[in-house]
C-alpha cells in the first residue's frame, strides 16, 4: 500500500441499498481520499516517503505523532475495510474462519451478537475489529478513532467502520441498523485469507 487512494474492489453501486453510491462518494471519495492526501503531505520530502503505510503507522504511534499516526492508520484501516465487504458476501462463515469462530466463541450466532454489540456500543468514533492474537486465538476489539490491531501486535482479520461518516447518509443516526446490514455483505473469503494458520 502506498500513499495513493486504492481502487475499490467493486463498483460504488455494488452494495446498494445497504451501502449506497452516495455513501461511497463521501466515505471513499472524500474521507478516505483526505487521509491519503494528508499523509502524502506529511511524508513528502522526508525519510518516511519510502516506508510502507504499516511502517509509518508504527513510527507515528511510537513517536506519539498524532497527525502522522491518524492519517496513516485511517488510510490503512479504510483500505482494509473495503475488502471486508462484498456483493457476494454474507451468509455463515465457511472454511477455517468458520472453524475458529466456533472454537473461540462457541458458535456463529454468539460471535455475531458479541461483534454487533461491540460495534454498536463503541462510544464516539472508531472501529470494531476481529483479530488474531499471537497464539492464533480470535478476539473482538473495540478500537477508538484511528486505532488498529497493528499497534497491538495482533493480526487484523475483519473490521467494521463505525465512524458516523460510514453510515449517516444511508442510516442517519441508526448505527445498529448499519451494523445489522454488515452481516449481509461481510466478506468471509477475505477473512480466510487474513488468517495466520
From TrEMBL:
Homology family: Belongs to the iron/manganese superoxide dismutase family.
Full protein name: Superoxide dismutase
KW Oxidoreductase (keyword) present: yes
PANTHER family hit by this protein: SUPEROXIDE DISMUTASE, SUPEROXIDE DISMUTASE [FE] 2, CHLOROPLASTIC
The reaction(s) this protein catalyses: 2 superoxide + 2 H(+) = H2O2 + O2
EC code: 1.15.1.1
Biological classification of the source: Bacteria, Pseudomonadati, Bacteroidota, Flavobacteriia, Flavobacteriales
Gene3D superfamilies (UniProt xref): Fe,Mn superoxide dismutase (SOD) domain, Iron/manganese superoxide dismutase, C-terminal domain
InterPro entries named among the record's database cross-references: Mn/Fe_SOD, Mn/Fe_SOD_BS, Mn/Fe_SOD_C, Mn/Fe_SOD_N, Mn/Fe_SOD_N_sf, SOD_C_sf
Function: Destroys radicals which are normally produced within the cells and which are toxic to biological systems.
Entries under Pfam families matching the protein: Sod_Fe_C, Sod_Fe_N
Domain Manganese/iron superoxide dismutase N-terminal: 4-86
Keyword Metal-binding annotated: yes
UniProt keyword list: Metal-binding, Oxidoreductase
Manganese/iron superoxide dismutase C-terminal domain boundaries: 93-194
Amino acid at each position: 500500500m502506498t500513499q495513493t487512494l486504492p481502487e475499490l474492489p467493486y463498483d460504488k453501486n455494488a452494495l446498494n441499498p445497504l451501502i449506497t453510491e452516495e455513501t461511497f462518494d463521501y466515505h471513499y471519495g472524500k474521507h478516505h481520499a483526505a487521509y491519503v492526501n494528508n499523509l502524502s503531505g506529511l511524508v513528502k520530502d522526508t525519510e518516511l516517503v519510502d516506508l510502507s503505510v504499516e511502517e509509518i503507522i508504527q513510527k507515528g504511534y511510537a513517536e506519539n505523532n498524532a497527525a502522522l499516526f491518524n492519517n496513516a492508520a485511517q488510510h490503512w484501516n479504510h483500505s482494509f475495510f473495503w475488502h471486508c465487504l462484498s456483493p457476494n458476501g454474507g451468509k455463515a462463515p465457511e472454511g477455517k474462519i468458520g472453524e475458529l469462530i466456533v472454537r473461540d466463541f462457541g458458535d456463529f450466532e454468539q460471535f455475531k451478537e458479541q461483534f454487533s454489540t461491540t460495534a454498536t456500543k463503541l462510544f464516539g468514533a472508531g472501529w470494531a475489529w476481529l483479530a488474531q492474537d499471537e497464539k492464533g486465538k480470535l478476539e473482538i476489539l473495540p478500537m477508538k478513532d484511528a486505532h488498529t490491531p497493528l499497534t497491538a501486535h495482533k493480526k487484523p482479520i475483519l473490521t467494521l467502520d463505525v465512524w458516523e461518516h460510514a453510515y449517516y447518509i444511508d442510516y442517519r443516526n441508526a448505527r445498529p441498523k448499519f451494523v445489522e446490514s454488515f452481516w449481509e455483505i461481510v466478506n468471509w473469503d477475505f477473512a480466510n485469507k487474513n488468517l495466520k494458520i
